[in-house]
Model the fold of this input.
Amino acid sequence: MQVYGDNGMKKTEVYKWVKRFSEGREIVTDEERSGQPATSRTEENIAKICQIVRKNRRLNVRSIAEQVHINRERVRKILIEDLDMRKVCAKMVPKEFTKEQKQRRVTICQDLLESQDDILGHVIAGDETWVYQYDPEMKRQSAQWKTANSLRPK
Done:
């Protein structure tokens, strides 16, 4: 192990191979196995997944797997290993306030409204439409796929 470092076989694997050869095995290549070969990681599926992700980078692995009709783990491996993508947050999302923090904000706003200073009278123009169109989302919901050389999400 000292000679090969991390490239050497683990002790348990060595014991398994010693047992196999002592039982009469003579070759080191894999034996034939029953079942279907893994055919989901093809160039065609890689291209499909790449096209799907380019259309909508916010999709999760489950929805991509449903569209392509292959295993979620295979989709994840295609995204990470073949397409060299990783999931990053598209924007910073503030943490949710606790009940005490929310109540403190309400109290401060009420105090400001009841104070003798006419704070709202000093506002020249204001637009309240942002309050109605603000759609908060969780940090996980804002995550999207990106490659190493793609631009930083906004």
Notes: Residues 128-134 have pLDDT under 50 and may be disordered. Residues 84 and 147 are 6 Å apart (CA to CA). The helical segments are 11-22, 43-55, 61-68, 72-82, 99-114, 129-133. Residues 5-26+38-147 form one domain.
